[in-house]
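Fill in residues.
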């Protein structure tokens, strides 16, 4: 059975963070794992793009009901939910491990649910938002310096 690696983060972020997300997606594909994300733009789209370019499989769990409104063309499977932020529960429970890049309140809720489900969470240091906030917070998260290290930690934690 393949490992499901969630990639979570902001829809609006820096170009540098988008490049990191693409690299994370590529590393997930190279490892033979499946990428799961929220199926929208920003970090989610960039990670799915990297995964697709490296020949991997990606699944987007949408907050909306109409999958035609999906703004991420790199997904292999699109799962509409009509659950808005409630879909974060589904993302957290469907993943074996999550990697956070930047992020805001939605990312924070995904991290909270994942930790509640005893799923490991890795944050990439220096990407801002929720990721950097969690490094010095009260939650138990692993910290990575870059995309390759993040995926390496993720795979070690769930094997």
């Amino acid at each position: 059975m393949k490992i499901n690696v969630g990639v979570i983060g902001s829809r609006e972020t820096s170009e540098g963070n988008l490049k990191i997300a693409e690299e994370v997606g590529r590393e997930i594909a190279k490892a033979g794992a499946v990428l799961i994300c929220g199926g929208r733009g920003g970090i989610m789209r960039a990670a799915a793009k990297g995964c697709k370019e490296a020949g991997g499989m990606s699944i987007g769990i949408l907050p909306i009901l109409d999958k035609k409104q999906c703004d991420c063309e790199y997904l292999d499977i699109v799962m509409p939910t009509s659950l808005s932020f409630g879909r974060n529960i589904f993302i957290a429970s469907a993943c074996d491990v999550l990697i956070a890049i930047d992020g805001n309140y939605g990312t924070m809720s995904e991290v909270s649910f994942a930790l509640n489900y005893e799923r490991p969470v890795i944050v990439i240091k220096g990407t801002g938002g929720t990721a950097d906030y969690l490094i010095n917070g009260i939650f138990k998260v692993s910290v990575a310096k870059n995309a390759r290290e993040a995926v390496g930690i993720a795979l070690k934690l769930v094997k």
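The radius of gyration is 13 Å.
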